[in-house]
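[audit] Reproducing an earlier prediction to check determinism. Same input, same settings, fresh worker. If the tokens differ from the archived copy the diff job will pick it up downstream; this log only records the rerun itself.
[audit] input (282 residues):
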Amino acid sequence: MPLGFIVLSHYQARPLLEARRAGQSIARTSLDLNRSHCDVTLDAGGITLPDGRRIAWPIIEQIAASESGCYRIGDGAEKIQTYSQATGRTYSLYPTPLAPTMLISGLPMHRIKDTDPYRDTLAKIKAASLTRGRVLDTCTGLGYTAIEAAKIADEVITIELDPAAQEIAQLNPWSQPLFDEPKITRIIGDSYDEVRRFADAHFSRVIHDPPAFALAGELYSADFYAELFRVLKPGGRLFHYIGDLDSASGSRTARGVVERLKRAGFQQVTPRPEAFGVVAHK
């Protein structure tokens, strides 16, 4: 990531303050939420970056005090968040020790308990058993699924309902390949409608990672599953993220999902608890 695009969270800010208290003049840190690392110089006024720019200690202290925010550094520190006029939801970038997640009205869109968003994404990719060919990612979010899928597949088409989510992704260092990778095609629209535009047997794999049922019930419907079945090639696979299959709510949701997937035509639906979802075969 170019040095001009600086994003910090408390995971970077607090060690810098500790280094100052320890009397260090040089500290190793990340300017892009732990995607890469560099050395910075510490003095009484703040830190000096490798390109000569400076960040004052009051800004570092402000970021260190925030448990739930990621901040883009310019003249000051601007929290990465936005409000969607389209959906009435608030989106913000939420830090973890590795890749951040996105909060949608306060709910994280990735697993962050006993894992992190990057490992969560890799679990979904592994469950889907990706091959070369064309992949559909129904809900872009921060784009991690599309980015990882593009490392294997020939083409990835990813659909995002809310432009506000793309605004957050554009400010997330970990999401930059979503906008740079030529194998990824981004569509802004409702997956329920957009999937109908694709030809029969258009995809070898589908990764369906919808919001919670309460937020997007239509993406759990038999009609939508029938469209996913239609656009899959024979022998294709669908990975459907549900949530913790061992929890009461996850188990209840999974039962309905499996029944509707089979009704849509999928012949084999296999639980993948390690990825919090199921795999359906055509």
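[audit] rerun output stored. Observation attached for the diff report: The longest strand covers residues 232-241.
[audit] end
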